[in-house]
Amino acid sequence: MSDTITSVLSDAAEGVIDRRIFWDREIYELELERIFARTWIFLAHESQLPVSGSFVTTNIGSDNVIVVRGRDDVIRAFLNSCPHRGNRICHAETGRTRGGFVCNYHGWSFGLDGQLQGMHETDAYKAEPSFDFGEHGLVPVAQLDTYKGLVFGCLDPDAPGLGDYLGDFCWYLDVLLDNQDCGTEFIGGCIRSVIDCNWKIPAENFAGDALHAGWTHDSGARAMLDAPVPEWWGKESYQVNVNGHCWEFNLDLVGNASTFGDKRLNRWIRSREAEVEARLGRIRSRMLGAFSSVTVFPNMSFLPGQQSFRVWQPLGPNRVELKTWVLVNRALPDEIKEVYRKGAMMTFSPSGVFEMDDGENWEYSTRANEGVVTRRQKLHYGLGRDSRLDHPELPGNVYRNQVNDANQRAFYQRWAHLMAAETWAEVPKS
Asked: What does pTM read for this prediction?
């Protein structure tokens, strides 16, 4: 396994990837330790936690966690496991509790602050002089922080803070999160599905695979819109990455948004261009609805313009649970919010015309890489190796053309650096 990681470290920059990383159980187990247990993982949007007692349950790798808003209005997160016998405390995905959480097994109960309040036969424990209620609360997630409505958690107390982890990528995230004073919210609930693929394949797809759009999604685009997906190679388009976080985009104002086939949405985005330009500048105002895709390392992705926001939750080396929400500005007219909600179901959902295309490709890519002879062959990630440029306005590592493998190379270099490092001090910024 160490040889595989070393080869990715040395080969990714050259555009070569070892297939073993997509199917090997030992590598997957190390990912849970060195990727998911020590990076910042998206947990919730603040709009999911509107009042005291509001909660969601989610995962950081293989660890289930509860995210809850306390009576003091502070958002906290805890491991969803009772410190008595380890049973899961909360089985609901989302909801509201007035008092806290109670374990089904022996009745241990915990407040919204995670503190142990009591249990079945409480007097028996109070009679034990050595038993300290304060020492047996829910285990908190080591670090918790927010960025403009997004709640992130990190299980590693020694990891850099969220600001350092995101770095200059915040400049790009503001296209989605800060193009209006009102802030953002999730609407319409969560769409859940399971895909039999390695989690990295969809994550890298959203990190920068513009190449597949005009081929994989051509038939869907023609059926829905009576037009092909536009070609963007050689035009004003870019790939950018910071610390493994990746965004590929062109400057077509209503690119992604046009896939819904609803002129109301296109008119709305165009009507806001001057306002957004005054707030964020010309380039980011054009990115608002452009043909683009984004992955925040390791497993959070979204589609600007379509507002599909998703997490790739690993369930093993060859299975992923996909959770999808629709993220919109709070102040959007209800009519436009409904366009986004229905558009997400029509395009990127289990029954959506584009997601079915992607899911099949991702599943067969995972299966094919396992072949005894096939696995010995390296994969080509070399497109655009000479495309880096200095851009006066764009921060981070910038590359010409969104039809490029630059972001996938950056994604796997970040993966390899974390997998090879014993501590965060050994992980370089990139």
From this structure: 0.95
